[in-house]
Amino acid sequence: MSEPERPAGTRLHRIGWDTPEALTEEMIRAVVDRFYADARRDPIIGPVFNRAIAPEAWPQHLSTIVDFWSSMLLGSGRYTGRPMPKHLAIPDLTDAHFMRWLALFRSTVEELCPPDVAQLFIERSERVGNSFRMNIAMRRGEDITTMGPLERETSIWSPPR
Predict the structure, then answer these.
(1) What is the pLDDT of residues 54-75, one digit of tens each?
(2) Partner of 44 at 20 to 30 A CA spacing, among 17, 34, 81, 104?
(3) Main-chain dihedrals φ then ψ at residue 108, nearest 5 degrees
């Protein structure tokens, strides 16, 4: 069975059979733009982002993150960076920051994406978030053998639009 024709630029190729048909580059861009606009205003993770990324660096940073998600979800191969060293350089990252990032990201994709696409984003974001926090803990010399996945935050503050 062959892949259906798609308009140019909307989809590079499927990574696996579980990649939803509705997932496009444009949807990834919309998720990244909305999430980071909200995250920068969030009282918990906003200060971390705003200290780490200068205002004039945000356009390039957003493009890099779009490339990351495009590579992860669509197999575009555009992202070739190493995000872990950047996150290791932020000394005040805690589980509370990762929980908040995941909750806000989950809220964003549930609002903007069809359910199957939202579920894929959520599943991958939880893997990334838990991997980052475990790597950071390990590099800080903490015992990670008893670390389980992050608990999901049950309520989230939504920034005004």
Answers:
(1) 999 999 999 999 999 999 999 9
(2) 81
(3) -65, -50
The domains of the chain are located at 25-139
Q: Could you give the CA distance from residue 27 to residue 33 in angstroms, rounded to a whole number?
A: 10
Q: Which tokens hold the place of 17?
A: 């059979």
Query: What is the rounded distance in angstroms from the CA atom of residue 2 to the CA atom of residue 107?
Result: 34
Half-sphere exposure of residue 75: CA atoms within 13 angstroms, side-chain side: 10
Domain range 25-139, its CATH number among 3.40.50.2300, 1.10.490.10, 1.10.1040.10, 3.90.870.10? 1.10.490.10
Nearest Cα residue to 92 out of 56, 128, 44: 44
The tokens for 153 are 């935050």
Q: What are the pLDDT digits (tens) for 17-35?
A: 467 889 999 999 999 999 9
Q: What is the pTM of this model?
A: 0.82
d(CA 85, CA 62): 18
Would you state the structure tokens that stand for residue 131, as one six-digit string?
């991997």
